[in-house]
Amino acid sequence: MKGTPSRLFTFPNGDTDVARTVVCLPGLGASGRSFAPMEPLAGRFRLLLWTPPLHTPATHTPLQWNLAVLNDPEARLPERFALVGSSYGSLLSIAFALAHPERVKALVLVSPVASVRRVRRLAVTLSTLVRTPRPLAYLFAPTVARVLGGARLPPEGRAEIVREARRLTPVELLRRLRDVLAADFHPRLHQLRVPTLVIQGGRDLLVPPRAARDVAEHIPGARLELLRDASHLPYMSHPEAFNAAVGAFLQEHGAGTPRLVP
């Protein structure tokens, strides 16, 4: 799309009704495959697991480029769809909903990043890892995966994070981190007028629960679901609880004609 290779994963035998499309945007350095634990919902919703392009043109920031690619006709997304965004993906989801409110039916923000001022200093500290020599960065990748996923992250989930993170060049990863460090959508959250569910892990070492609660309080009509034993990636570490909350929310708001929050 737009001359940039992009990867989009789906579930075999999943729902194909375009009116029930849900686009899932992963976190920093992850791929759409990280949403594989959402497969139980594939029979009820058309899940499209998006992977940001591995390389961003120098003319755009990664955030700007992903917004442009998502909204490009070549993406072949329906006119309206629901968005599930995790961490960096939540930043992209918020930005897309603000730029194209007419296209978003509903928002699910997981471990939301709306302003770096409300993200723990550990998140900034981890960003220094991408400045290390590439072989050393490879060695650190499993440690980062454990921090992100927590103790309950299954081995296959940890392997997916490590594998995908190693596909990115340090320069591309640093550019995406700069998007996070420069972001401050908090003053504009009140402009969101779509049904929104915020999901947060109680043991998240990067995004504290109070930051997620703050995001939910500033989005009109938003609901907060706290998974107390989960970390930064609750859809990978606690899929049953995550899928139950997201499935119920999307069943209510993600299909058919959406209602805007007054």
Tell me what you see in this structure.
The model is unreliable at 127-133, 135-140 and 256-260 (pLDDT under 50). This protein is of the alpha/beta class. It is globular. The protein is 37% helix and 15% strand. β6 (196-201), α7 (209-218) and β7 form a beta-alpha-beta unit. It is built from nine helices and seven strands.
Short characterization:
The chain is built from nine helices and seven strands; from the N terminus they run E-E-E-H-E-H-E-H-H-H-H-E-H-E-H-H.
Topology diagram in text:
Blueprint: E1 7-9, E2 21-25, E3 46-51, H1 62-71, E4 81-86, H2 88-99, E5 104-110, H3 121-126, H4 134-149, H5 155-165, H6 170-182, E6 196-201, H7 209-218, E7 223-227, H8 234-237, H9 239-253
Parallel strand pairs: 2-3, 2-4, 4-5, 5-6, 6-7
Antiparallel strand pairs: 1-3
Helix pairs in contact: 1-2, 4-5
